[in-house]
Amino acid sequence: MATTMLKWITIGLIATPAIAQEGQVVKHKDGYQIEVSEVSEEESVEERAHTIKVGDTLWDISETFWGDAEQWPRMWSYNRYITNPHWIYPGNTIRFTPGTELSPPTMELDGDKEEQGTSVTSLTFEESDPVCGPDVRFNKNRESTTYFTPAFLANKDEIPVYGSVYGAKSGMKNLSVGEVIYLDVNKDWVVECGDVFTVFRRRPGKVRHPDSWFRKYGFLHEVVGEIRVTHVGDEMATAVIRRSFKHMKRGDEFGEHYPVAAELPVSVPNGELDAVILARLGSETQMLAGPGSVIFIDRGRADGLEVGDAFYVIHRSDDYRALGGYDPNIPEQVSGRIIVTELGEYHATAVIVDAARPIKIGDNLAMRVE
Fold it and tell me: First-to-last CA distance in the chain?
């Protein structure tokens, strides 16, 4: 029979119960240690386990089995057998095999279902030749998606105003879907029960081209919501809010129905046009944009643009020097992709569908990258 001797082995296991080893858990200047027995290679080593239950946390498990909850980050960092201490769920089992003179202690995290396993058995890497060419990304088609663009550009005389929101049945300041509201209808217009109108809010100041102060594109009108008339009286009409994109307020104007939804597939940009971003919905509160943002560009129907056309967002900058700046010495970099959803004669409404970097007003767009 092999000779038995005492040996100190330091381990960094947060969730290992003290009873998983023969001996006593003690605190040493270098960490927590367990007194274990050296055994011969022929002797079997008992495996112990702890199953995670609902409500278990790393803090609690450390406190229960090690007596000091605050030690769990340092002890876990010593262990190389579990890659991520946060990947434990109810039903997972932490298995600990005591170390011997011939083999170190081991730890595994098993799941009660195959998909809960968190261990990586191996990593393989393949070498490939780099692809030469311009920095192009977002060059794959995408299936149809519904995009909402609750805004439009127009001059004041281009948008007839039927009236305004006078009041509401509730005492709420901000009005939303389902609220009953009262409309003050202008004398030049007649509304009927069942009519659907768009409520909008005009932002001050005309949109101008970033490269030319004299090129104006009208006012940015933000679509607040959609209402349906339910009753027409002698003095006022009653309506209900059936769609809301922003809180409606008393005094908001309404006019003819403006469609805000477009279902379109996203294609790879293909053409010869370039463009510039003129304006963006929400720019009054946020300078930079990302996927889902509504923008306006300086190309329209007169340029041969069509709904569904796509552009790349082009940057030429080093963000360390200037975030979103322009450096003619740096090659073109594809930073995003947009899709056109609505056409004007000399401008268009679009949605940012992809973005690898922040996008802002004044950024250049192109259908082709040299």
Answer: 79
Count CB neighbours of 67 within 10 A: 12
**Chain CA centroid to CA 157, Å:** 38
Confidence at 78, pLDDT banded by 50, 70, 90: very low
Which structural domains are found in the chain, ordered by start? 6-116 (no CATH), 142-149+262-366 (no CATH), 151-258 (2.40.10.170)
* pLDDT at residue 48, rounded to an integer: 59
Q: Among positive and negative, which fits the CA dihedral 16, 20, 25, 29? A: negative
- Within 13 A of 259's CA, how many CA atoms are on the CB side? 8
Name the amino acid, one letter, at 49.
A
pLDDT score of 167 more than 90: yes
Paired strand residues for 310:
339
What token pair was written down for 197?
Answer: 């109108």
Residues 15-58: tens digit of each pLDDT: 333 333 344 444 555 554 444 444 444 445 455 566 777 666 65
Q: Is the dihedral of CA 132, 134, 135, 140 positive or negative?
A: negative
What is the Cα 368 distance to its own chain's centre?
Answer: 27
* Secondary structure (DSSP) of 142-157: EEEEEEE--EEEE-GG
pTM of the model: 0.64
pLDDT tens-digit series, residues 58-74: 566 666 555 566 655 54
Q: Say if residues 43 and 2 touch (Cβ distance below 8 Å).
A: yes
The enclosing H or E element of 277 equals strand 274-280
pLDDT in tens, 168-188: 998 889 999 999 999 999 988
Whole-angstrom distance, CA of residue 125 vs CA of residue 192: 69
- Are 269 and 334 a contacting pair, CB within 8 Å? no
Residue 313 CB: number of other CB atoms within 10 A? 25
pLDDT given for residue 18 in this prediction: 33
294 strand-pairing partners: 351
Tokens of 320: 């360390």
Which tokens in the block code for residue 192?
A: 């009927």
